[in-house]
């Protein structure tokens, strides 16, 4: 019985220690902030990286004749 109670107390202590560690850990930064250097001009890339007029469909003029299925 004593070993079971010791195991429970030890599990609770580990869980509390892990909780305190993760709550006090520094938050992660986006890559464009974390890996910027003095010689590189990196700004916020925004949310839409393909442009405002992108529909998600490929441009038919960019597809070769062999790739178009009829």
What does this structure look like?
- The structure is a single chain.
- The model has no long low-confidence stretch (mean pLDDT 76).
- It is elongated and about 75 Å long.
- The protein has two helices and no strands.
- With 70 residues, the protein is mainly α.
- It is 39% helix and 0% strand.
- The chain has helices spanning 2-24, 31-34.
Summarize the structure.
Helices cover 39% and strands 0% of the residues.
User: Helix proportion of residues, in percent?
Assistant: 25-40%
Terminus-to-terminus distance = 76 Å
Arithmetic mean of pLDDT: 76
Tertiary shape? elongated
Q: Give the biggest sheet.
A: none
Subunit arrangement of the protein = single chain
How many helices in DSSP terms?
A: 2
Rg, nearest Å: 27 Å
Structural class: mainly alpha
Give the number of DSSP strands. Answer: 0
Q: Stretches where pLDDT falls below 50 for ≥5 residues?
A: none
What descriptive keywords fit this protein?
70 residues; mainly alpha; elongated
Write the layout of secondary structure elements.
Layout lengths: L1 H23 L6 H4 L36
